[in-house]
What does this fold into?
Amino acid sequence: MKNNNRRGFMGKAFGAVAAVGAVGSLYAMKKSWDPLPSVKAAGFTTLDMSIYEEGVMVTEKWRGKPIFVLKQSAEMLKKAKENPRDIERLVEVDGSHYMMCIGLCTHLGCIPAFRQDKNDFKCACHGGEFDASGMVQLVPPPRGFDIPPFKIDGTKLVLGEVGPEWQAMKDNGITL
Ligand code: FES
It folds into this structure.
């Protein structure tokens, strides 16, 4: 009888320890599945659009991809306004217009170079060209630069978040 009680106590104690251990391991497993805070934050990139200068091409980074940002000069904007498909590609923030695109050629993914003297982009791989709004000018690229999802937040752009302006571009076939 005494032995039975002892066995019962030992069984319960062992069960309790095992249960605590199981909960602990489940917690540890969940922790290892959850993305690190830095990885979560890495999905979004915030650009302060007020720092860019007209006509100066800057390459930023989002999810490991180059992002071309080109604040349109008066001359670029005048040219873009002549073609509805060009002007539609530009992002307007605080009264200024920007080309903001993924800087990868839509042919086979090379990184085109900005030509300051011509205000356009040339892809060295197969000769494709894009204008200052990111629209394709010379094949083989099948379309203009792709525009990453963005949301306008005051004078900032949050890349990786879908805002109404980007959604409209996507719905109108301006970007994939
Ligand atoms: S990869 Fe750019 S033209 Fe082919």
Summary: Residues 105, 107-108, 110, 123, 125-128, 140-141 surround FE2/S2 (inorganic) cluster (CB under 6 Å). Helices lie at 2-33, 37-42, 74-81, 84-87, 164-171. Residues 43 and 63 are 6 Å apart (CA to CA). Confidence is low (pLDDT under 50) at residues 35-40.
